[in-house]
Amino acid sequence: MIVLSGALIGAAFGAFLAKRRKGKALDIAQYAAAYAILFMIVGVFLTLFVHRASL
Description:
The chain is mainly alpha-helical. It has helices at 2-20, 25-53.
C-alpha cells in the first residue's frame, strides 16, 4: 500500500513540477513517470523497514 501511494504521489508531484516549469505534454509524462518510480523505490524501502521493525 505504501508503494502504490508513493507512486501516485510521485506521479502527481512530477506532473505538477513539469507543468510549473512550462513543459509540454511529453515532458509532463516523463517527469510523472520518473518521480513515480523514485517514490515507489522509496516506498519499497519504507515498507521493508516497517515490516522488519515490527518483528
